[in-house]
Specification:
By secondary structure, the chain is mostly beta strands. The protein has strands spanning 2-7, 9-11, 17-24, 32-38, 45-50, 56-58, 66-71, 76-81, 90-98, 103-106, 110-114. Helix content is 0%, strand content 54%. The strands form two sheets. Strands 2, 4, 5, 6, 9, 10 and 11 form a seven-stranded mixed β-sheet that branches. The relative contact order is 0.32.
Length: 116
C-alpha cells in the first residue's frame, strides 16, 4: 500500500496551490482522507478532512479557503488551497485512514511555502 503526494511548492500570499494524494495497493473508498500540516518544532495538525460519503471538515484557520475532495474511481484525493497566507507554510502530509479497520497510511509529505 502506498500513498503518493504531489503538488506543493512556493507561492506568493494570496495565491493558490493544489495538493493531490494517489493511493495504490488497496481500495480506499471506505477511507477518510485527511491533510495535516507540520511546521518546525510543532506537531502535525489536521487542516482538512473528506470522509467516504464526501463530508468535509476544516480547521478554523483554513475554512473558506481550502477545499478537500476525492475521486474514488482513481483512489485520489485533492486539497485545493486558495488565498494562501504565510502562516499556511509547512510540510503537508496526506493521510488515508479507516478507524473501524484500524488502518492508517501516510504520504511522504510535500513542502508548501507562502512567501513574497
Amino acid at each position: 500500500v502506498q500513498i503518493v503526494e504531489s503538488g506543493g511548492g512556493l507561492v506568493r500570499p494570496g495565491g493558490s496551490l493544489s495538493l493531490s494524494c494517489l493511493g495504490s495497493g488497496r481500495d480506499f473508498s471506505l477511507f477518510s482522507w485527511a491533510w495535516y500540516r507540520q511546521t518546525p518544532g510543532q506537531q502535525r495538525e489536521e487542516v482538512a478532512l473528506v470522509t467516504p460519503n464526501t463530508n468535509t471538515d476544516y480547521a478554523d484557520a483554513v475554512k473558506g479557503r481550502f477545499i478537500a475532495s476525492r475521486d474514488d474511481t482513481r483512489s485520489m484525493a485533492n486539497l485545493q488551497m486558495n488565498d494562501l497566507k504565510p502562516e499556511d507554510t509547512g510540510v503537508y502530509y496526506c493521510n488515508a485512514r479507516n478507524n473501524v479497520l484500524g488502518r492508517s497510511f501516510w504520504g511522504q509529505g510535500t513542502q508548501v511555502t507562502v512567501s513574497s
